[in-house]
Amino acid sequence: MTVEFIGILHYRPGSESIAGSGPAVQPEFARELAKAHETAGFDRVLIGYSSASGDGFIAAQHAAAHTERLGFLVAHRPGVVAPTVAARKFATLDQFTGGRASVNIISGGDDHEQRRDGDYLTHDERYERTGEYIEILKRIWTSDASIDHAGRHYRFEDNVSSVKPVQKPHVPIYFSGSSDAAIEIGARFANVYMLWAESLAGTRDQITRIRAAAARHGRADAIRFSLSVRPILAPTEEKAWERARSILEAAKALREATTSTVAAFLRRRNAAPANTGSLRLLKVAAEGAVVDKRLWTEIASLTGASGNSTALVGTAEQVAESLLDYRAIGVDAFLIRGFDPLADAIQYGEELIPLVRREAALRDAARSGAAAE
């Protein structure tokens, strides 16, 4: 079983601890970051979605023009773009990139954020719509005949798409969401189910729940799992924790210094999170600043767990060991991003990614040898 590494493609420099500056979209930075991820050995990069950010399809095409192998995982919210149009957009991207497109379906866990793009469905209604949306995508990607559809959320007649994905049977579907409604839909359709890094026990529980739901649809072995985490590396464990503390202090200072308009946005974004994934991370953070061997939770606490915000802190060898512990319970893809996006992507490629892949191959060979005896 190979190990997949996913990075993240930002539109400009910045993170929870580094203030963004300059235009919201900086093509030169995006190009440099994409090339750095390809050089570092990442398989693909996630291009996130929010009501205030740039367009992921355009960002992917820009980055693809400056890379040769790197894949692009475009976050996409059902309800913003009609599924017939989205199917053609993703198929076109897959054609222009030579089979490097994938989609991260995010139904949305925050009512306020959804309404910024004009979406007024309730949480569970959004996931119901997502199931219908993905069914339409898959039909259009795989059918050579015209398609009629009459569902609760979408209706169309005689749809024919002349463009199909390079990848067969279709563009890979990555899925996010921790609520019961999310798991029911993801279990039916996801190729890869994306989780935020909790404790090993919590992650095992999530995998068990999702596989049980998938089994009801005959898909118990059809879903892979990815884990999103923020590695903080240094030559020694002591220096890694010093770096983590400096990141926390910088993040606190940045939040205090943020302009009133942005501060108000952050308060709305982080106050009493409604999505289940954030609530789960905050529950983990309540267990302590460090969970298991080295899962660090203080950035999650500071930000209200508004995103992928738990970190693994230590030397490259220690963090690799922790990633392999997650692999042992069923994770085979890791979305890793740092608090200094470009520098950390380069460091991961030099120190962490080769180490994890080498050790994973050794463990797989040892298991295969033992099974053959």
Q: Low-confidence parts lasting 5 or more residues at pLDDT below 50?
A: 264-268
β-strand amount: 15-25%
Rg over C-alpha atoms, rounded to the nearest angstrom: 20 Å
Please summarize the sheet with the most strands: 8 strands, parallel, barrel
Task: List the total number of helices.
Answer: 13
Taken in chain order, the helices and strands follow as EHEHEHEHHEEEHEHEHHHEEHEHEH
Q: Helix proportion of residues, in percent?
A: 40-55%
Overview of the structural elements:
Pfam families: Bac_luciferase. This protein is of the alpha/beta class and about 375 residues long. The chain has a single domain (about 5-370), classed as TIM Barrel. The chain is built from 13 helices and 13 strands. The protein has helices at about 25-40, 55-65, 85-95, 110-115, 125-140, 180-190, 200-215, 235-255, 260-270, 275-285, 300-305, 315-330, 340-370; strands spanning about 5-10, 45, 70-75, 100-105, 145-150, 155-160, 175, 190-195, 225-235, 290, 295, 310-315, 335. The strands form 2 sheets. Strands 1-2-3-4-7-8-9-13 form an 8-stranded parallel barrel, surrounded by 8 helices. Strands 5-6 form a two-stranded antiparallel sheet. Helix 3 (about 85-95) crosses helix 5 (about 125-140) and helix 12 (about 315-330) crosses helix 13 (about 340-370). It is globular. Residues about 265-270 have low confidence and may be disordered.
